[in-house]
Write a structure and sequence with these properties.
Layout: H1 2-14, H2 20-30, H3 34-43, H4 46-50, E1 65-66, E2 69-70, H5 76-87, H6 93-100, H7 110-115, E3 116-119, E4 122-125, H8 127-136, H9 139-155, H10 159-169, H11 174-189, H12 193-210, H13 213-230, H14 233-239, H15 241-252, H16 262-275, H17 279-293, H18 299-312, H19 331-347, H20 351-361, H21 375-378, H22 389-399, H23 417-422, H24 449-459, H25 464-471, H26 475-489, H27 494-503
Antiparallel strand pairs: 1-2, 3-4
Helix pairs in contact: 1-2, 1-3, 5-6, 5-8, 5-9, 6-9, 9-10, 10-11, 11-12, 11-13, 12-13, 13-14, 14-15, 15-16, 16-17, 17-18, 18-19, 19-20, 20-22, 24-26, 25-26
Amino acid sequence: MPWVYAQRTLSRSSGFPVAPHVASHLLEASGGGKSQLSYVGTSLSREQLAGLSILPDPIPIQDTRLGPFDLKALSPAEARILLTASLSTTQQVENLIDSAAVDSVHFFTDAVTNLLKIRDGYFHLNPAARTILLNIAGTEELTSAHASLARTSTRNGDRASSAWHEAHTRLGSRESLKGLLRTATQQIAHGAVHPAQRAAILAMDTARRHGHQDILTAATKIATQAALGGGYFTDANTFDTRTAMSATRILHQNQPCGALSLEEHIEQLRSLHRIMSRRIDSEILSDLIRALSIWEEDASAADARIAAIALKTTRSQPDGKAGEDRHIPSPLVEAYVRLFHAMFLFQSQKTELAAAILIREVPRLPIAVLALPSSAWTTRAARRPAPPQSSTEEFLLSALGHSSSRLPDGLRIPMSYTEKIAKSDFLKPETGSHDPVSIGHLRGTDLTRREHQILTLLLQGCTAHELSRSLSVSIRTVEVHIRRIYQKLGVNNRAQLIAKVRRGANTPIKSPPHIYRSRDL
């Protein structure tokens, strides 16, 4: 499975666990090259890699080449077409032609036809090309493209798209911000929590900068609901401290596999039910709670209810995209449905089908931010024989993308992503020391005071860009400091740095000579 390769590459470069659905998205958005993925891994925070905070759009990239094309070398007309396609909220070719406002002959060049596929009046832009284009485009180019798309959307009567694009060209205008919030509210109603959260964040930042307190309050509420729907518990904490208590309780109930009881899972769903605003989400969570509540009394009836819920939440769209149907639940709620459906099938001895569901859904939904349900409570039903241990191992390993033949001797079920996250401190109150790894044993090294400061922040998961902002220095200066830290400690990347600090400063890490580049930072 390609996402497993991406997950391993990102984890090795960053030193942090990476959620499968995050790895899958980054694989598609970056183009999948190893060096590109490694750079992305070191550029994102641990919360973003864990799936607890929304990814930036665009994600940071290093290489501007995509196959035979260097996107920096595109002609102005080609760049205009592809940049307009990158920013468009619809995939209609007619809108793209109107907004790009270039001669149609430029739509048939090699670069455009290879990166932009057109079929039946709709276009599909290569996701990696979109990432690169948004990274290299200047502010003037972006503003111009947004303005052109806003005019086209207005002519076509698409108020939602018009509000989104206008907000990028007239930032600070109360009218544009109110239109943006209306768009975000509609997106949440249709289950499109990711664009809704981005729209609300844009409105929050702009309202805060221009002193629009009423808009800031409304945007914060919308952003919180969108973050919860996407499983971004860290973001929900940041937006709304009142909701933070509920979000923290939900996440901190996540324990290593097999540690949660049936009652704890029911309480977890009830906590989520109290803070979700969409009607379809509340209905599905209520159905799940009822199914789990009757499990021990009537396992067959519970199985039937879970199957009905799973069928109800099956997406009608062939491409599996959210946001076009009010009857589609938020990603987090759908993740719960798929997870419990798989576990109920597993207890019915349908192990292969259960594993197939998780293998299919884990790269798409935030299942990884949830604890795998306990096998202990599901086997308490006297009418069901407990499955053999080998089946349990095969089920969990398959869901994680592993094969039992690849396990070292004596190793049972490996620590999963979920277990690593459950043992972390993403949502714990920030009191006392922030350093997750002690560096006291490094005080005798020749690191400068600034290098000690940067090392401490690196071990907390800060990226080079975050260090640049927090220390008020250029990104180049931060990269120089990081290179010197790597050289003095004899490591080549952040993963080796974390490993060495944890083992002790005097433990050498054998590695070949290395030329330090920005992607290693």
